[in-house]
Specification:
Mean pLDDT: 92
CATH superfamily: Ribonuclease Z/Hydroxyacylglutathione hydrolase-like
CATH architecture: 4-Layer Sandwich
Radius of gyration: 16 Å
Structural class: alpha/beta
Order of helices and strands: EEEEHEHEHEEEEEEEHEEH
Shape: globular
Number of domains: 1
Strand order of the largest sheet: 1-2-3-4-5-6-7
Length: 212
């Protein structure tokens, strides 16, 4: 089911029971961009239809893989052959040798012109996974799972240097609202995010109440 978000932006609602993230679609006048593929084929197909991938008039479609976890990249082999995949070097390692779509490795901030919308794909430090990418569209920053923790047993992974890098990086990005991937994850203002990141830097993981 497609839900509108803002002008040129919509999403297929995910399902937390199946660890299925939302599928965000950014649609410009010339090209479209999907954020991840999710792990449900019906969701991916709905997102591709919204992006115009099956329209009679050919549109260029980009897909950003925010990180390598299976719930975000499981269906890359189900993408149309013409779709261009943008991912980090680390995420690229998890794509099978038989994956034949054009692949662009993102190592620095990269702009994609969709026609009426300009999108920026941004490498970001993350406690959740190595090689994370965020997507900036106007005031919205689509963070995938970049703001989540990752677990080591029953403990949340914490690296102070990464936390410091996260605080600096997110302070430098010009956004108003951060939008996470999973339906249960809260949208968060930049101001609140920076307060929480600073607490994480100063006081450690006991303050990471948004990194669930």
């Amino acid at each position: 089911m497609i839900e509108p978000l803002a002008q040129g932006m919509s999403f297929v609602i995910g399902d937390d029971d199946f660890l299925c993230p939302n599928l965000y679609v950014i649609k410009g006048s010339v090209s479209s961009l999907l954020i991840d593929t999710t792990n449900r084929l019906d969701h991916l197909q709905e997102g591709l239809r919204e992006a115009g991938a099956f329209a009679k008039i050919s549109r260029q479609n980009f897909v950003v893989l925010t990180h390598f976890h299976n719930d975000h990249i499981a269906l890359v082999k189900s993408l149309p052959p013409s779709a261009i995949v943008l991912c980090s070097k680390n995420t690229s390692r998890y794509l099978t040798p038989s994956f034949s779509n054009e692949r662009r490795i993102i190592t620095e901030d990269t702009q994609i012109d969709l026609g009426t919308l300009m999108v920026s794909v941004l490498p970001v430090p993350s406690l959740h996974s190595k090689g994370s990418l965020d997507v900036l569209v106007g005031d919205f920053l689509f963070t995938g799972d970049s703001l989540l923790a990752r677990s080591r047993g029953e403990e949340a992974y914490y690296n102070h240097e990464v936390a410091v890098e996260m605080e600096k990086r997110y302070e430098s990005i010009p956004f108003s609202i951060a939008i996470q991937s999973h339906p249960s994850a809260l949208r968060i203002t930049k101001e609140k995010l920076l307060v929480l990141l600073h607490s994480l830097v100063v006081e450690g993981p006991q303050k990471e109440d948004f990194l669930k």
